[in-house]
Amino acid sequence: MTAVTVIGAASSKIMRVLEPQEPYSVGLATRGAESGGLNAPGQHLAQMGTHVRFMSQHDGILATGQIDSGGLVLHAEILSTGADPQAGHNQRAFGRFYTPASVASQLASRAVAALGDLESLTSDGIDCIDPFCGDGRLVVAAMLAAQDRNLHFRQWRVTLWDLDADATAHAEHNVRTAAGQMGLDLELRTSSSDAFSQLGGHEGSFDLVITNPPWEALKPDRREMAHMDAEQTSAYIDALKAYDTALATALPLSQPSRKFSGWGTNLSRCGLELSMRLSRQGVGACAIVLPAAVLGDQTTRQLRVALFEQFAVRHVAHYPAEARLFAGVDQPFVTLVATSGGPTTSVTLERHGIDGLVCDSTELGLVLSEMENVGFRLPCEIPGDLMDTFAHLGSLPSIGSMENKAPGGLWMGRELDETGYAGYTHHEGSVPFVKGRMVARYAAPKECLFMREETRPLPESIRHSRIVWRDVSRRSQRRRMQATLLRAGAVTGNSLHVAYLRDDDEDRLLALLALLNSLPVELQVRSGLGTGHVSLGAVREVRIPSLDDRALVSDLAAMARRALAGHTEVDSQIETLVASLYGIDQSRMRRIERFCVDPYSDCSC
Question: DSSP code of 600?
């Protein structure tokens, strides 16, 4: 993966959009010359929304609100038939999160620009679908974008799906109104149904798929189960498992590489695979809004492989969580435009700042073999001028490759579940209990609790000195990797991840600690995080120099001991040595540090 060029920062500011109050109506005003956005149409678009919702079949909910264990359960139905209305769950359950109008407009413009075989579309018409249509905003934005480009398709054959019948009716009204006011020949098909059950008969049928799928993780929610009795809870869990199995069968690429306690399916990944399969082979364009983690996490690798191999990904725009473009959603997101018929050889990566302005736009040349080295991850948050550094690191061995059962192998994992920890800990005792908030970079725990005697079995890992790092780490922190050394005898809660060497080679362990706390590792960790958690998976993907050189290991270990003793001046010495091991010059190290301190310092904010 190599960075070809960096384009200067320039863009219109992203507008904050409130929930729609009025139905959409189209104005035929022209685009503003300076902002690049819509004038009157843009204002009308601001009244619309595309939902980010949890979807499932709802025929398992009886009219009385009782749960039929043979059916599949919809969270929103559960909440609407007995949940506390003050609990604050309804917005998430019913998907009342609206795509900002300007984001919809920009995505639609890029999608229309990516359409292939324009001659055929002009003469025969275009088949367009939003399988999670909400109120139809994205389809209307696509119609406006085509008009703006003077593309006159003979007919718009539009398909709208949504589980919410009211949303589908609203979308139908909006699309019909827009098409009428633009003078378009419209053929419209709608269905109030689960989009994931509609793939059969529609695969490869659409020239344009433009959508914002649900982002919900498919797993039981304690907040919902709190309003159910035991029988309802059991039926609810069984129904979710049945739905999970059905999704895994229909959309296998969207399944995570590993599941925890049987759960792990995320509907945003299912929505991406569905959209890819709805696209017409060879010419179809797919435009979609997704959580940024889809392009950077570890569990979505096989779906990304299919995306980059089978599609030409043309444009990715990254928006930070701090921009607060989706009210109530605290995670970064991306918009992605791809055309069927891969592989991807180049992509424009656009990085937005916290105010919605474009920080940089970079044209990346992609080589699939190099993408494989980095898990087919596209590090959207990293500035364009650091992309070549990220690609360079991909040639080194991963920390995960050190995990094995050999005498010098690495073990990584977590120890005790902290749920109900007050019941098994006390303020005095012989076995310290350490949580994430008690740990800082190169710092021993400042406080700890203690295990009550014989309350629960202790893991074998407490016999070893371990590297521990916080699971929860805010995006605003200068360093998201907060790692230190924990001596044998203490036990940790699952707000900490732990790693130890099976042969208890302390010098190698301390050398690894020095690497984990370094800037090159910080850069890599940030590239794989889409949430406020520094997961085991993200750390396993980190690339590090070999630790086979005993003299090198001894030097790093000595520096790490001084850092652990509170000698903060040694930190710069560690960074200098680590930079030389990675082959990174000091000017590039300073650039990495500026990025880690303030990821958006280079934005024109």
Answer: T
Residue 58's identity, in one-letter code, is H
8 A C-beta contact, residue 557 and residue 547: no
Domain carrying residue 560: 399-597
Among the listed residues 254, 300, 248, 296, the one whose alpha carbon sits nearest the alpha carbon of residue 275: 254
Residues 226 and 233: their CA atoms lie apart, in Å, by: 9
The model's pLDDT over 459-500, given as tens digits with 9 standing for 90+, comes to 999 999 999 999 988 777 889 999 999 999 999 999 999 999
241, 249 in Cβ contact below 8 A? no
What is the per-residue pLDDT for 603? 66
Report the C-alpha gap between 583 and 27 in whole angstroms: 57
Considering the domain architecture, whether residues 134 and 154 belong to the same structural domain is answered as yes
User: Between the CA of residue 232 and those of 62, 218, 227, 244, what are the distances in Å?
Assistant: 12, 17, 9, 18
Given a cut of 80, is residue 264 above it in pLDDT?
A: yes
- Count of the separate structural domains present in the chain: 2
Q: What phi and psi, each to the nearest 5 degrees, are found at residue 37?
A: -110, 180
Closest CA to 461 of 427, 416, 514, 506: 416
Give, rounded to a whole angstrom, the gap between the first and last alpha carbons of the chain: 29
pLDDT in tens, 428-445: 899 999 999 999 999 988
Domain identity same for 551 and 445: yes
Specify the pLDDT at position 411. Answer: 98
